[in-house]
Design brief:
Elements (H helix, E strand, L loop, with lengths): L4 H12 L5 H10 L1 E7 L2 E2 L1 E4 L2 E6 L3 H11 L8 E5 H11 L4 E5 L8 E3 L14 H8 L1
Parallel strand pairs: 4-6
Antiparallel strand pairs: 1-2, 1-5, 3-4, 6-7
Amino acid sequence: MERSGAALAERIAERRSGGGDPRALVGEMRRAVLLVPMAGGRLWSARMGGVRWIHGFTDEVALARFVRHHVPGDQPLEYATLLGARIVDEIVPALGEPAGLAVDVATEDGAMFFPPVTGIVPESAAVDAGEAREARA
């Protein structure tokens, strides 16, 4: 069942306050419809710490905050609406490099990062896939 980003924003707030279940947060991210800005026909991303982070936003207010800080002038910005699961299951592996999802980058508390690890992205795209296989053996 697809859900708006509001439920994800609530789960993120729970985690930041020291509560909530990390697995429930990942599940909510997978069900959430996120707004992903486009630049040059591609999803907006940035490299940090050796990882390409796709930027997703839980609502138009969070996206507008990002646009004010990263897009010059009053230029319109296209964005795609994508299910979190599609981003981490399809788009991340297709990039061919370590990649994850950064949600609500321009908030006061900073982004919530969903890194390229087992349990968030497919094993084929997880940077810890070898460790996860060894742990199961």
